[in-house]
Sequence to fold (125 residues):
Amino acid sequence: MINSRNLLELEIGFRAKVMQWLEACRNAGLDILVVSTYRDNEYQDFLYAKGRTAAGKICTNAKAGQSMHNKRKALDFCVMEGKQCDWLDVKEFTQAGLLAEGLGLVWAGRWNGKLKEIGHIEAQK
Fold:
């Protein structure tokens, strides 16, 4: 199973936008940690099973092959506060998401009717 954090695993056009986004975040005082980039189909199915056929909470609605992570056009991130990820600071995730949108990326914190993910950005489809 592959769940990469390596930016070099991303599709080159998306990676260029991500690099711009990371710079914009740094300039805004946001410390971003990329926690997932490319996922293979096996890992995507592992995540999809959570809360369905495996223990845990549902964390994705995408089966293998449906996720932008599988296409190398998505990443998950967290906003760091010192050495910890501050998952409760919605304000900073929102700021990072708005910066991504300003570069033409999709921020999953705005998704309606889907699983809202404040720490996920992806390329336009």
Summary: The mean pLDDT is 95. The first helix runs from residue 12 to 27.
